Amino acid sequence: VSNAPFTELQKVLTVFNSVSAPIVAGAATYSYAR
Predict the structure, then answer these.
(1) d(CA 20, CA 5)
(2) Superkingdom of this entry's organism (predicted)?
(3) What radius of gyration, in Å, describes the C-alpha atoms of the chain?
(4) pLDDT of amino acid 1
(5) Distance between CA atoms of residues 29 and 17, nearest Å
(6) Enclosing H/E stretch for 2
(7) pTM for this predicted structure
(8) Distance between CA 34 and CA 31 in Å, rounded?
(9) DSSP 3-18
(10) What is the dihedral of CA 12, 15, 19, 21, to 10 degrees?
């Protein structure tokens, strides 16, 4: 049994997190500034 699927999922989540984190931070800042 290999952990390749888990490693791929982790890679996808890391990429998704690095893309979504600035968007979430920007949206929070925007809604706070309003």
Answers:
(1) 22
(2) Bacteria
(3) 15
(4) 59
(5) 18
(6) none
(7) 0.58
(8) 5
(9) -HHHHHHHHHHHHHHH
(10) 90
